[in-house]
């Protein structure tokens, strides 16, 4: 195995993982490996919050838009193979792999030493004795935000996505792939926003109600992601560096100027994250 040290950035949706990954990659000579299962599919860039080419700041990003938008579900074992191959290629170039994503099932599937296909849900309560160990040396950075503050931010983020063309993007996807008024609930069709707005496109609910459902389901996703991270830490014993982004998000929500928001981010998140990585490397 060529790449024996990884930086792994985890956290709920909307907490700033992408921003941190790019800043770290610029600082240490890293390349980003996507660990978000919806962003692996091509298409629905607004819906899945893919980072734009411009915002990547020249940092190589891997396993983004790598699967056709009309492909079905892919097994975790596929991601494990693809990501391991990518990580080794990055290591050959003398760069540090930075794995980033909110899909904890993919993070688990990639990192565990012994990947057991018989374990359907490694985060399930029935797996009380399951304590996997990572196959790499990992520096885990957990970007977290107070739940109340994050919930408000996620609601506003959906509003921003609507302004950016979310409804039109999903309508085009719906028109292309719907069968008898339904988009199959597989692959990219599971992305939050697609099932909810499909109800609107078929006249079952109003657009406002569909977007409200999208906001609620995004908040539910964030809560589930945090629960799984707690299992990694509290049950599996994986050591993580917690980075509190609450004040940064709060500054954004209350309309603080960009300079102040960036200062808080640097103080609470990026400086602490870089310090942890420098000690690790």
Automatic annotation (TrEMBL):
InterPro entries with a match to the protein in the record: Dimethylallyltransferase, P-loop_NTPase
Magnesium is among the record's keywords: no
Entry's family note: Belongs to the IPP transferase family.
Gene Ontology molecular function, alphabetical: ATP binding; tRNA dimethylallyltransferase activity
One of the Pfam families matching this protein, by short name: IPPT
Keywords, in A-Z order: ATP-binding, Cytokinin biosynthesis, Nucleotide-binding, Transferase
Protein name: Adenylate isopentenyltransferase
GO biological process, alphabetically ordered: cytokinin biosynthetic process; tRNA modification
One of the record's GO cellular component terms: mitochondrion
Entry annotated with the keyword Transferase: yes
């Amino acid at each position: 195995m060529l790449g024996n040290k990884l930086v792994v950035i985890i956290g709920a949706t909307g907490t700033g993982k992408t921003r941190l990954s790019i800043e770290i990659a610029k600082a240490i000579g890293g390349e980003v490996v996507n660990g978000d299962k919806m962003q692996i599919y091509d298409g629905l860039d607004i819906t899945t919050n893919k980072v734009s080419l411009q915002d990547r700041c020249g940092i190589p990003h891997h396993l983004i838009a790598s699967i056709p938008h009309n492909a079905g579900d892919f097994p975790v074992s596929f991601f494990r193979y693809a990501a391991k191959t990518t990580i080794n290629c990055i290591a050959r170039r003398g760069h540090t792999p930075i794995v980033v994503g909110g899909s904890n099932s993919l993070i688990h599937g990639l990192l565990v030493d012994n990947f057991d296909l018989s374990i359907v849900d490694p985060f399930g309560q029935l797996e009380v004795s399951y304590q996997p160990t990572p196959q790499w040396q990992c520096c885990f950075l957990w970007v977290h935000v107070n739940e109340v503050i994050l919930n408000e931010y996620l609601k506003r983020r959906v509003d921003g996505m609507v302004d950016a063309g979310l409804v039109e993007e999903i309508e085009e996807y719906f028109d292309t792939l719907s069968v008898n008024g339904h988009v199959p609930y597989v692959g990219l069709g599971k992305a939050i926003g697609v099932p909810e707005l499909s109800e609107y496109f078929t006249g079952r609910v109003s657009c406002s109600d569909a977007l409200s459902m999208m906001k609620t389901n995004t908040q539910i996703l964030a809560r589930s992601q945090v629960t799984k991270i707690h299992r990694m830490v509290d049950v599996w014993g994986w050591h993580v560096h917690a980075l509190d982004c609450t004040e940064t998000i709060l500054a954004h929500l209350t309309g603080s100027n960009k300079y102040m928001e960036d200062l808080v981010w640097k103080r609470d998140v990026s400086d602490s994250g870089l310090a942890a990585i420098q000690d690790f490397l």
